[in-house]
Amino acid sequence: MKRKLIGLLAFCMMTAVFTGCLEVQKSDPYGLAGKTHSAVTPVDRPDVKWWMPRHEDVLERVAQGNVDLIMVGDSITHGWEKGGKPVWEEYYAPRNAVNMGFGGDRTQHVLWRFDQGEIDGIRPKLAVLMIGTNNSNGNDNTAEEIADGIKAICAEIREKLPRTKILILAIFPRSDSSNRPPKGQNASFNPQWAKNNKASELASEIADGKMVFYLDINEKFLEENGELPREIMPDLLHPNAKGYKIWAEAMEPTVKKLMGE
């Protein structure tokens, strides 16, 4: 009897330890525990007058429901409402898409917005993520930290929207402040571009081909010599109408597949 009791207690202890390990894995699927740098610390932007009203507009829109696609990011995604509007109307408006792009946002700002309800109460089929280029300015964040921020956003989506597939896009090519050519010239490969490439590669490690996917369409924007032309991104950062068309066409087969169309 004593041996049976000891065996039962040992089994219970092993089960508790195993269950505890599963809980840790479940709550921290991308190994972010203990990381406290700026890219993973949610924060708002009270110094930007339009930012909070835009957040409130997004909350109002998602409260209406009927959301099948969300586009999450910074000014590059925000621009679907500007230079990319005709393309948005063609490709994404019919899919009940919501633009969650905020000019100037970094990963930490997206995390704050998600914490404050932007993805609550909806069940989109797909979330497209394009974020991180603003984190790469100067010494603000390393490539590893930017990747952590992207992973943290994905973890938030997976927790709140377990049925939503995620498409992480490689951060688009760009010029940087130290290598910005004179107006009229194109952008060649530079340190900030390289940092974003590395961050994208690190973030792609969480793509499991089941719920999280990764897509790099950057070559579609480049000329044969590898330069980023102003013809597509006039300021060597933000796409124009032609750039948004390239983006949509390059992404369309993946979007269509992931949305089950």
Assembly of the depicted chains = single chain
Largest sheet: 5 strands, parallel
Percent helix, as a range, is 40-55%
Query: Which structural class do the helices and strands define?
Result: alpha/beta
Query: What would you give as the CATH superfamily?
Result: SGNH hydrolase
What's the total count of β strands? 5
Number of helices: 8
Shape: globular
Computed over alpha carbons, the radius of gyration is 21 Å
Determine the N-to-C terminus distance.
61 Å
Low confidence ranges: 4-25
CATH third-tier fold name? Rossmann fold
Mean pLDDT across all residues, rounded?
A: 91
Q: Note the run of SSEs as H and E.
A: HHEHHEHEHEHEH
Instruction: Tell me what portion of residues adopts beta-strand conformation.
Output: 5-15%
CATH class (first level) name = Alpha Beta
Q: Under the CATH scheme, which architecture would be assigned?
A: 3-Layer(aba) Sandwich
Write the layout of secondary structure elements.
Elements: H1 2-27, H2 51-63, E1 69-73, H3 75-78, H4 85-91, E2 97-101, H5 107-115, E3 126-130, H6 143-160, E4 165-169, H7 191-203, E5 212-215, H8 241-258
Parallel strand pairs: 1-2, 1-3, 3-4, 4-5
Describe the protein in words.
The protein is 41% helix and 9% strand. The protein has a single domain (46-258), classed as 3-Layer(aba) Sandwich (Rossmann fold). It is an alpha/beta fold and 261 residues long. The protein is globular, with a radius of gyration of 21 Å. The chain contains 8 helices and 5 strands; from the N terminus they run ααβααβαβαβαβα. Strands 2-1-3-4-5 form a 5-stranded parallel β-sheet, sandwiched between helices.
